[in-house]
Design brief:
- The complex is a heterodimer.
- Chain A is mainly α.
- Chain A contains 16 helices and no strands.
- The C terminus of chain A is likely disordered.
- Chain B folds into 3 domains: 235 residues, P-loop containing nucleotide triphosphate hydrolases (Rossmann fold, 3-Layer(aba) Sandwich); 185 residues, 3-Layer(aba) Sandwich (Rossmann fold), CATH 3.40.50.300; 73 residues, no CATH class.
- Helix content of chain B is 32%, strand content 27%.
- In chain B, the strands form 6 sheets. A 6-stranded mixed β-sheet of chain B has the order 6-9-10-3-11-12, sandwiched between helices. A 6-stranded mixed β-sheet of chain B has the order 18-21-22-15-23-24, with helices on both faces.
- The longest helix of chain B is centred in the middle third of the chain and has 16 residues.
- The chains are: A mainly alpha, B alpha/beta.
- Chains A and B meet through α9 and α10 of A and α1, α10, α11 and β20 of B.
- Chain A: This is Nucleoside ABC transporter membrane protein.
């Protein structure tokens, strides 16, 4: 079997297997799998409103996935996308409501602010890793909680004690009357174009630039990179910073698109953690992440419809969605089976 | 004469690739039978068939005259076949005994009976002169000792037939001598041995008979006493091989590398290079001979900028490069074939073409304005792949998938093509077969003939003697003497390497 047919076939088989097992779970729990899946389908594509909301859900997942994937490609595990996202969210919301500027400056400025603040939040674990060898997983997790616990006082500080910021000015908003009108007033926004640009940017950095070559080399083999005269420490910091910028952009999508503000939080939003799954599902490739985010966001948004329309309880919905993702993620097992069947060449010594 | 193992007409293929075709190997009781072939000739495949890891498509296996089907390694174990792997299968932080009983733990009332096992290990160790402490931790013992643990492991499980897979690849010369004695003792005690190797001298030293395979085909079996290394090499490679490296007299000119009173410490802060002085001139190959661990690794790392210099001075092309970053030193005219090609020389997951760009990726013509031109990378790599005869399925094949010899040729191609004034070659032929070794030596000499300086570090005396124009012997962090290959011999070098200064000091090679 050629690797191209395999690349195409594996995800499809994985998802079908996931659907089958999800159906079994629903059937065993006494709910109709057919009704359940119809409700899931409708939740994703059933109405223009649902479709708009699905796109809206996908957008931050793309950025969160890119953030995690970028760090992975350089051999780093950025588990702190959550915190970087929160800080980016705040930065974009603040720039969005605190300034009054023409859109052509205001919107890019708000987006840039989110990317910068996300990058700064990731710079701290990056520099600690490079200079002192502190493991980035520990620091990024801690940075998540620092972000969570600082966000409410920050919001209060810029709003004279309110629990949420004012809405961002229209000149900084990604929402559009046009998109709302064709999707029955969903919260779909222009962020999807920025997400596609994000995918292209990551691909461009990794596959076209000299810096990308270095980042990948450092990710695969630090010793050989050092031997080749690369500055390993600088590349570690840079990788975290770029990863954090993507995470900050995920926050910008929430601030300027979905909610148009930021409100006090009592727990982490979870998009950053899901980003880990999105990145792994997408094999840390930009295009892979894009499709993985589509799958993830669709299931997330479609699942909301399952309790209403088919009476499947939330818990079962979570299990079914988890199963589909589990199978999609274990694609390498299916690859292995296909390899065995195709009796493809093994390494010969 | 009875055979303990007979493999008759074995054929094994993977997809379209025939790894073994019609190979016959017959092992007599109490003999050391060498299995000779180049890297990739199919030696390991054949042994994996015998060990039950692969099932042959054709051919039969007989053990003690009876036909058997070896479906998995457990069957092989039961039949008394044990394998001493090239890469040891040991748990680092377990003791010797714990490793030996692993997977087969003797229990007494629900707990592991480590005492009895240790006693048995001790007995085996004494009987075969292995000198292994049953309670020592693996991480604390030498590589040679770890190998002996592997040997005891097979004996403990009742092996009568021992397969040694390239056993000397990672051993020092002394450890090799010890291993040869152990193998002879095993034979005396009635065991039979299959020795997989591509080192001809080893075969001449220890084996009784040799079976040669080439490109998966059985070439034949000969008595060691009736053959010689040249004939064996020809049977293995399929063409004539020159052992004496042909070279014209050197014409050394200006000093390219100068190391003065250098001190370097290792990772644990132990001083490894202790006031070393060395000079390498353009147009000569200086070989550093010495036993592993006498400061060679630290010396190279200091010169190449991978390790901090404690004190002293390193000059390259009259420029002080002490403490410079690797890139700066590279650009000052250094080429470096690193000791560990997997650790330092290659990014194994990168395509081979991207690996060939590893030292030049940031410069024109490959990189312009921060954008890398992968098309250029591939065309430049393509020329090097052709010129240096790197055998690879494509220029986009991951470096990991290439054989050791071809990986090394790619590294050498990358370093030589940059035309460095000084080429450091650290163990450039480790683990390679005769054909590749011959090729690499020729390339090193070619560099020197083109007026470049070459610094060769090797643990193999043959290599140092054959290739170098001057030999600097390193011992305990200093060059204790410099000799000319023509005026010395292996005994003398051996003494120097062991730290015995010669009574008649002969520093004919100038002060190095």
């Amino acid at each position: 079997m050629s690797s191209r047919t395999q690349n195409f076939l594996v995800p499809i088989i994985s998802i079908i297997l996931g659907l089958i097992f999800g159906a079994i779970v629903m059937a065993v729990s006494g709910y109709s799998p057919v009704d359940g899946y119809i409700a899931l389908w409708n939740g994703i594509f059933g109405s223009s409103y649902n479709f708009g909301e699905t796109v809206r859900t996908i957008i931050p997942y793309v950025f969160a996935g890119l953030a995690v994937a970028f760090a992975f490609r350089t051999g780093l595990f950025n588990i702190g996308v959550e915190g970087q996202l929160i800080m980016g969210w705040f930065a974009a919301a603040y720039v969005g409501f605190a300034f009054e500027l023409p859109m052509i400056i205001h919107l890019p400025l708000a987006i840039l602010a989110a990317a910068l603040v996300g990058a700064l939040w990731a710079f701290i674990p990056g520099i600690l890793k490079a200079r002192l060898g502190v493991h980035e997983v520990i620091v990024t997790i801690m940075m998540n909680y620092i972000a969570l616990r600082s966000i409410n006082p920050l919001i209060a500080a810029v709003t004279d004690g309110a629990e949420r910021t004012p809405k961002v000015h229209e000149s900084a908003s990604l929402r559009s009357d046009f998109l709302q009108s064709i999707t029955d007033y969903s919260r779909m926004h222009w962020g999807f174009i920025i997400a596609i640009i994000g995918v292209i940017v990551m691909w461009f950095i990794l596959e076209k630039t000299t810096r990308g070559y270095e980042l990948k080399a450092v990710g695969f083999n630090k010793n050989a990179s050092e031997y080749a005269g690369m500055n390993v420490k600088k590349n570690i910091v840079l990788s975290m910073v770029i990863s954090g910028a993507f995470a900050g952009l995920a926050g910008a999508m929430e601030a300027l698109g979905t909610f148009n503000n930021i409100a006090a939080m009592s727990s982490l939003p979870g998009i950053g953690f899901d980003g880990i799954a999105v990145a792994l599902l997408g094999a840390n490739q930009p295009v892979g992440v894009f499709f993985a985010a589509i799958l993830f966001g669709s299931l997330k948004n479609g699942g909301i419809n399952m309790p209403n329309e088919a009476g499947v309880p939330n818990e079962i919905v979570s299990i079914v969605i988890a199963l589909i993702i589990l199978f999609a993620a274990s694609g390498y097992v299916i690859r292995l089976v296909l390899d065995r069947m195709g009796k493809s060449k093994k390494e010969v010594k | 004469m009875e055979y303990v193992i007979e493999m008759l007409g074995i054929r094994k293929q993977f997809g379209d690739f025939v790894a073994n075709n019609n190979i016959t190997l017959q092992l007599k009781k109490g003999e050391i039978h060498a299995l000779l072939g180049e890297n990739g000739a199919g030696k390991s495949t054949l042994m994996n068939v015998l060990f039950g890891l692969y099932q042959p498509e054709a051919g039969i296996i007989k053990v003690n005259g009876k036909e058997v089907k070896i479906t998995d390694p457990n069957v092989a174990n039961r039949l008394g076949i044990g394998m001493v792997h090239q890469h040891f299968m040991l748990v680092e932080n377990f003791t010797v005994t714990e490793n030996i009983i692993l997977g087969n733990e003797p229990t007494k009332g629900g707990t592991i009976n480590i005492k009895d096992a240790a006693k048995k290990v001790q007995e085996l160790s004494e009987r075969y002169g292995l000198n292994v402490d049953p309670y020592a931790k693996i991480e604390d013992i030498s590589v040679g000792m770890q190998q002996r643990v592997e040997i005891i492991k097979t004996l403990y499980r009742g092996a009568e037939i021992l397969i040694f897979d390239e056993p000397t690849a990672s051993l020092t010369p002394q450890e090799i001598t010890e291993l040869i004695q152990i193998m002879k003792l095993l034979i005396k005690e009635g065991k039979s041995i299959i020795l997989i190797t591509h080192k001809l001298q080893e075969i001449m030293d220890v084996s009784d008979r040799v079976t040669i395979i080439r490109k998966g085909e059985g070439i034949g079996t000969v008595d060691t006493s009736e053959t010689n290394p040249i004939q064996l090499a020809e049977m293995m490679v399929g063409r004539q091989v020159t052992f004496k490296t042909e070279k014209i007299d050197p014409n050394p000119t200006n000093v390219v590398l100068k190391v003065e009173n250098l001190f370097v410490t290792d990772n644990r802060g132990v001083e490894k290079v202790k006031g070393l002085n060395l000079e390498v001139r353009a147009g000569e190959i200086v070989g550093i001979a010495g036993i592993d661990g006498n400061g060679q690794a630290e010396l190279i790392e200091a010169i190449t900028g991978l390790r901090k210099v404690k004190s002293g001075k390193i000059t390259l092309n009259d420029k002080d490069i002490t403490g410079n970053k690797p890139r700066k030193i590279t650009e000052a005219g250094l080429g470096h074939i690193p000791q560990d090609r997997h650790k330092h020389g290659l990014v194994l997951d990168f395509p081979i073409s991207h690996n060939i760009a590893l030292q030049t990726y940031y410069k024109e013509p490959i990189s312009k304005g921060g954008i890398i031109d992968y098309k250029k990378v591939r065309t430049i790599a393509g020329t090097i792949i052709d010129e240096f005869d790197v055998r690879t399925a494509s220029d986009m094949t991951p470096a990991r998938a290439l054989s050791g010899g071809n990986q090394q040729k790619a590294i050498i191609g990358r370093e030589i093509t940059r035309n460095p004034d000084l080429l450091i070659a650290a163990l450039p032929t480790r683990g390679l077969d005769v054909g590749a070794i011959e090729y690499i030596h020729k390339r090193l000499i070619e560099q020197r003939d083109n007026g470049k300086a070459v610094l060769l570090i090797s643990f193999e005396l043959d290599e140092v003697m054959n290739v170098s124009d001057r030999i600097a012997v390193i011992y305990d962090g200093i060059i204790i003497d410099t000799v000319l290959p023509k005026e010395t011999n292996e005994q003398e070098l051996g003494l120097l390497m062991a730290g015995q200064e010669l009574s008649s000091k002969q520093s004919k090679g100038g002060d190095a």
